[in-house]
Amino acid sequence: SISSLIDLERPRDAQKALSALANIMRMSIKGPDILSIGEDMAYINEYLFIQKMRFQGKVVFWVDVPQTLFPYSIPKLCIQPLIENSLIHGVNNMLDGGLVAVRGEETEDCIRICVRDNGTPIPDSVCENLRHPDVFGSQSLGLISIQRRIQMIYGDSYGLEIQTSKTGGNQVTLVLPKRRKEGAGL
Predict the structure, then answer these.
(1) Rounded-to-integer distance, Cα 41 and Cα 69, Å
(2) Is residue 99 helix, strand or coil?
(3) What contacts 24+ positions apart, CB below 8 Å, involve 7-13?
């Protein structure tokens, strides 16, 4: 995408994309393993900036994560792979009209971050693999990795929930305990 921007003589856009990519790389390599949701959303916005350039209107991105959730903690690199899965496995083959939405909400005792798309349904085997990874092998390693990390940090009551529609569309919900990140304010 960045190379194409240069070929199209759009140096400012290429510069912005390179800056976003550098910020993403820096966050993924350095820093703490637990971020505030606000910090993670800044990273997600950089990622979406690049994807918007890549998909050029083929996919609509919608983000609705209230700022009241920003002080709560989240392990880094949990939301971005869910968005990437929606892009690669959900809406990538659509000619037009793809939608990827990220929505956050809080309940009395947890935070829920939902990534929804209108693309190809997640196969039942992947859903079963997530529920019983030791029985079904190593399909969908990204989802299993996120599930294991969340449950290792917070316990088996938390992790990923998957809902699919046979007519198209998926929702993967990340369920986390309501814990404020130390030093994170509104």
Answers:
(1) 10
(2) strand
(3) 13/53
Other C-beta atoms lying within 10 Å of the C-beta of residue 12: 8
- CA dist 141 to 34, 74, 115, 137, 148, Å? 21, 20, 18, 9, 10
pLDDT value of residue 182: 73
**Stated pTM of the model:** 0.85
Tell me how far the alpha carbon of residue 130 is from its chain's centroid. Answer: 17
Question: Which residues have a Cβ under 8 Å from the Cβ of 82 and sit 6 or more positions away?
Answer: 115, 146, 172, 174
Average pLDDT of every residue of the chain: 86
Distance CA 72, CA 174 (A): 13
What proportion of the chain, given as a percentage, has pLDDT over 70?
Answer: 92
